[in-house]
Structure formats: C-alpha cells, structure tokens
Amino acid sequence: MSTDYRVWIAGILTVTSYSLLYKHNRFFELVEHLYIGLGAGYGIVMAWSNAKNSGLDPLLEGKWTALFGIVLGLMLFLRFSKSTKHMATYPAAFLVGIGSAVVLRTSIQADLLLQANATMLPFVSVQNVIIVIGSLAGLFFLSFTVGTKTAGKSGQVFSFIRTVGRLVLMITFGASIGSAVQGRISLVIGRAQFIINEWLPFLR
Amino acid sequence: MKILDKIDSRFFYLLIGLAIMIPVARPIGLPVDVTATTQQTLDEINRIQPGDKVVYLYDISISAAADVYPGVEITFELLMDRGAKAVCVAFVDQGAMFIDQTVRKWEAKGKVYGEDFVDLGYIVGGETAMSAFARDIRGLVSKDTRGHSLDSLPIMQGTNSASDFKLGVHSITGVPGVEEWARQFYVPYQIRSIHVVNANSITRIYPYLQSGQTHGMLGSLKGAAELEKLASKPGPALAGMDAQSLAHYVLVLLMVLGNIKYWGDKKSKSQPGRGA
User: Fold this and answer.
1) What are phi and psi of A120, to 5 degrees?
2) Which residue from B minimizes the CA distance to A23?
3) Model confidence, pTM
4) pLDDT band at residue A156, thresholds of 50, 70 and 90?
5) What are the pLDDT digits (tens) for A171-188?
6) Residues with Cβ < 8 Å from B231, sequence gap 6 or more?
7) CB–CB of B213 and A110 under 8 A?
8) What CA dihedral angle connects A176, A107, A89 and B123, to 10 degrees?
9) Structural contact between residues B38 and B222, judged by C-beta atoms closer than 8 angstroms
10) Which of these, B124, B225, B53, B98, lies nearest to A43 by C-alpha position?
11) B184 and B12 in contact (C-beta within 8 Å)?
12) Please, what sign has the CA dihedral across residues A24, A30, A33, A38?
C-alpha cells in the first residue's frame, strides 16, 4: 500500500468520481467542482504566464511592437461595459481576420486538393476500389440538388448510389463510435492501473 | 428476455469494472496484433539519425491523457534511444504539464536538458500560434519555461523554423489536431510526421495518412501497446491490453443481448394480444 499522501488523495478522488455509477452523491459533486475549479485555476495561471512571456516581458525589454498586441488584448475587456462594448469588436475583427487568413492560406491544398488526389486511385486492389467508390458515393449522398424522388431509370440509379453512400457514412460513424468506446475503456484502464499498481498494490 | 428488464444497470457497470480490474491485477497475456499504421510509426522513428531534431507537440488534455500518454512515453523513449533532439511545445494549455512530466523523467535518466530536449511550454493562440511557431520560433518564443534564453540552449542553435526539424510528432486529443498540423506544418514545410492520438481522433487521421500529409499513427492505448510490442519495450499500454480486450468482449455481449431484447419486444408488441 502506498505511503505517499498524494497517491492517496488521487486514489480517493478516483473512487469518489466513480461513485456516481452507484448513486449520485455529495462526494461526487465535491470532486466534480474540484475538477472544474482546478481546471479554471490552471487556465488562468497559463493565460497570465503567456500574457507575461509574450507581451509584458518583450515590452519591458524594449520591443515596442508588443504594445500593439497588449492594447488590442485589453480592448477585449471593453465588452463588459455597455458604453464601450463596440470598441471590443475591433480586436475581435483582428482575431477573426488573422485566424481566417492563416487557415485559408493552406486549407485548399491540405483539406481539398491533396484529399481529392488521394481518392483518385487505380482499381488494382479491393482497398482502392472501396476508397474510390466509398468517397464518390459518400459525396453523392451529401449532394442535395438531385431529388430523392426522381422518376425513371435515373431515379433508381441515384437512389442506389445514395444507399451506398448512406452505408459508407454509417460504417464510418460505427467506426467512430467503436473508437470512442475504446477510448473510454482506455481511460478506465489508466485509473485501474493506478489503483492496482500504485495505490493498492496488494490487490495484485 | 424479461429477466433483462429486471437487471439493475449498475450490474453492468460492475461487470465492465471487473472485466477491467481483474486482468489489470492478473494479466492473461492475450495476443496483440500490430497494425500497419504502427509499423509506419516505427519506420519513421527509425529514419532518425543521432542529432536529428524533432518537434514534439503536446496538444493533449488531462481528460484523455490515459488514452494518449502511454503512446507519448514510448515514442519519446524510442526517439531518445535514436539520439534525437526534441523541441517540446504545447498549443493546448494542459499539454504543458505533460511536457514537464516527460522532461523531468528523462533528466532523471541522465539526458541533458537544453541539449537532448527543451521545454518551450504552452503557447496561446491555437492554429495561428502554430503557424507563427512554424515560420519563426524566436519571433514567438524568446525563453523556455525555465527562463533560459533560446540562444543559450545548445539544442536551439540553428533551430529557427519548422524547416529545421527532421520529424514532427503531434500528440492530440482534439483541437489542434491533424488538420491544423497539415495546414501549418505539412503543406508549407513538407515535414514528415507521426500522430499519437486518442481513440476519438483515429478516424480523423486516416484521410491525412491516405493523402500523405502524415506518415504514421499510434491510435489510442492499443497503438501504444503495438509499438511497445514492436520495439520489445513492454510498458503500461501492453499491460492494459488484456483489460481492453475483455471489456470489449463484455460490451459486445451486452450489445447483442440488448438487440435481442429490442427485437423480442418489437415482435411481441406487433402480435395482437401479446406484450404491453
């Protein structure tokens, strides 16, 4: 059994967190609030440390350009007053503009051209056939210009492609759910390893 | 099937809990297959020569760390074994504490801070900060988390932008993720990379692997276990695989039972004079 008080605190908090599965209780609420509080506190410390390192310190070292960022950052707080609220939209506009520019600069190549290129494959393996047909059918399922009730032969073809597309999407969602379950189990395994290997090794 | 109605849901929690706790306490040694993406990850690490610089992004949060951190540990260990120099940085605030944890562990093992690795901490700004970091590291960061000027650290000599790195390792649990990596590191600088990801992010990585914008993936605890097995370095991930497998068997069984009950109820409702 561990003699480290920090391990005991972590162990007790872990068991208390899982006590929710038995019944909602005040101890669980306490841990929940503790977690949120610690997260918020950590966030504030990191934010201050960043403001200091990338704003105040360079300014004190004589980098006057840092003043521009500091002023814009402080202007964001003007939104808390009705009379100055509009002033906060200027730094927000900077943030949105710069953020969009940074993303759009390479987005077309990373998220569209290279992705599309990767789906143009020769039909030399089953995997390639699945990728090409799956991509096309999935895209077709998400095109809404062709009516779902188009009459005649073309209607039947559209309907078939849509069905294939829907199946592809459902398989993708199934894989996502499977991965999510795997992830949740991994989190419990992490805690179980902590309890058994570090906190209460006599359980081994 | 009426018996299923009477079972308290807490019984299922207990069942899954036992399926996890028992194999953690008493490992069974179920086999672990190695997937192609893990082999690719090891191949990328094996391309590293002593002295090559690697940028290691710790974009992970505490809530999913148990799923990702074993993968971080084994990749970092293999990089250190290859003699890589790791520049560690986080664009998620909680990632900074994991850098600290890794760095302290390797200092205790005899590696030298400032020569073998450096902790640049958390940089606020998400994708915009990633872009600025990749273009000009010193324009964004002037000191490491211990207050050393970057110019005073041997590892940072000649390290100015993303182009100076042989490999990028991006550990992620959400955003920033592979999309941000591809846009800010791969497309402009063509850096090869591997992604150490939580289970929820696995399906997001495949299109980028397929399009060659990342070159390896360790998915979840399972990916870490596979790499531990490939590298013959058994660790916490491999030890957790029995529990992972057993818990999944129990879940599959419960899903089958749930579906049988669902269809049974539906059938009895559709037959006149039967069911509720």
Assistant:
1) -95, 85
2) B10
3) 0.92
4) confident
5) 999 999 999 999 999 999
6) B42, B74, B78
7) yes
8) 70
9) no
10) B124
11) no
12) negative
Residues of B with Cβ-Cβ distance to A203 under 8 angstroms = 21, 25
Taking a contact as any Cβ pair under 8 Å apart, which residues of chain A between 138 and 157 contact chain B? none
Interface of B with A in 124-183 (CB under 8 A): 124, 126-128, 131, 140-143, 179, 182-183
**Gap between the Cα atoms of B167 and B86, Å rounded:** 10
Q: Is B165 exposed, middle or buried (0-12, 13-18, 19+ CB in 10 A)?
A: buried
Check if the beta carbon of residue B240 is closer than 8 Å to that of residue B199: no
Determine, for residues B243 and A98 on separate chains, whether the beta-carbon distance falls below 8 Å. no
Q: Which residue from B43, B130, B179, B162 is spatially nearest to A114, judged by alpha carbons?
A: B179
For residues B78-89, one letter each, b for 16 or more C-beta atoms within 10 angstroms of the residue's C-beta and e for the rest, the string is bbbebebbbbbb
For residue B245, give every residue at least 6 positions away whose Cβ sits within 8 Å of its Cβ, in sequence order, or none. Answer: B30
Residue B58: both structure tokens together: 């710790």
Give buried/exposed letters for A109-136 (b at 16+ CB in 10 A, else e).
Answer: bbbeebbeebbebeeeeeeeeebebbbe
Residue whose C-alpha is closest to residue B171's, from B113, B238, B101, B245: B101
Contacts of B220 in chain A (CB under 8 A): 179, 182-183, 186
- Give residues 29 to 68 of B whose Cβ lies within 8 Å of A: 62-67
Q: Which chain A residues touch B212 with a CB distance below 8 Å?
A: 114, 118
What are B168's strand-pairing partners? B55, B193
CA gap B168, B162 in Å, rounded:
9
Mutant choice from B14, B15, B24, B170 vs A, greatest count of A C-beta within 10 A:
B24
CB proximity B13 to A under 8 Å:
yes
Q: Taking CB atoms and an 8 Å limit, are B24 and A191 in contact across chains?
A: no
Q: CB-CB: which of B13, B183, B247 is closest to A185?
A: B247
- The rounded Cα B245 to chain-centroid distance in angstroms is 19
CB burial string B172-181: b at 16+ within 10 A, e below = bbbebbbbbb
Contacts of residue A165, defined as CB under 8 A and 6 or more positions apart, other chains included, come to A137, A138, A139, A140, A141, A142
Residues B77-93: tens digit of each pLDDT: 999 999 999 999 999 99
Q: Does A52 touch chain B (CB under 8 A)?
A: no
Q: Give the tokens for residue B29.
A: 């040694």
pLDDT tens track for B172-184: 999 999 999 999 9
